Amino acid sequence: MRKYLCEFLGTCVLVLFGCGVAAFSGADLVATSLAFGLSIVALAYTIGKISGCHVNPAVSFAMWIDKRMSTKDFIGYVVAQVLGAIVGAGILALIIKSTAAGDFHSVGLGTNGYGEMASSGITTLGALVTEIVLTFVFVLSVLGVTRDEKKETVAPIVIGLSLVLVHLLGIHLTGTSVNPARSLAPAIFMGGEYLEQVWVFIVGPLVGAAFAALAIFFIDLEDLMKEPEMILEGEEVKLIAAPAKVEQEEKIEKPEKKVSQAGRKKSTTKGRATKKPTNKKSQA
Q1: Which of 107, 171, 233, 270 sits at 20 to 30 Å (Cα–Cα) from 52?
Q2: Which of 25-34, 131-140, 221-230 shows the lowest per-residue confidence on average (mean pLDDT)?
């Protein structure tokens, strides 16, 4: 339960600060990119050891495909993330309403869009492809840096900078989603055409995450190929593709043989030593 709570709070903070900066800065390229990226860095160091700090259904989806989490946890994470995003967007809407800026409908909540709802006027297909590519790059970096425990101290920085990177390209195209929960929550409050278009920012990130998980699988195949393989050539069987492992096994076996031989010599000498005095006594 604790990890679900962390995902709830983490996604709430991400939406509040990331979408909040986007709304108040007019989707400024650098400011919005840093807001999302730095939020992830701070959250990863805070809740990373408890829940892994996914705060993104696309990341959880990739982790589930990669068999790093159970189906039960995947469902629990997604529910917590969506609820956290809705609460974060709600808090942001209340903050905007309390300012002189007026209603959040006029200011915006950092929503994503395409066509007339985007400054770039990007098409539906263009927006979908953009989200797939951006999410692929982001989730690939997440999967890659988190599979090595030695990199856990720098992983939050790598992930945060990766999120900054994809935002630098995507903000003026679609507003950059790469996170279904982050897109769904503001769209629910804004309603209208934003809610009609949100499917692109749910499907795109999930497809991109699936491609990233598939890419990691093929990257990991290199380690599997290093395992020893038996091939049959005519009547001879040869061991290939693992010379290093064979050498290590030989090194481990040799000392065992030496010890056993030494043990045999000692036991032989002991046997002889004990036999001689008994023979002398019997002769006397």
Answers
A1: 171
A2: 221-230
How crowded is residue 203: how many other Cβ atoms within 10 Å of its Cβ?
14
Nearest by Cα to 158 from 170, 144, 171, 177: 144
Angle, nearest 10°, between helix axes 57-65 and 200-224? 30
| Contact by Cβ (8 Å): 183, 203 | no
Question: Quick check: 39 and 10 in contact, CB under 8 A?
Answer: no
Q: Tokens 């039960």 label which residue?
A: 72
Rounded to the nearest 10 degrees, the angle between the axes of helix 200-224 and helix 180-190 is 180
| Exposed / middle / buried, residue 109 (Cβ in 10 Å: 0-12, 13-18, 19+) | buried
- In the predicted structure, residue 153 carries a pLDDT above the cut 80: yes
- 204 vs 109, 129, 136, 166, 200, CA distance in Å? 20, 7, 10, 14, 6
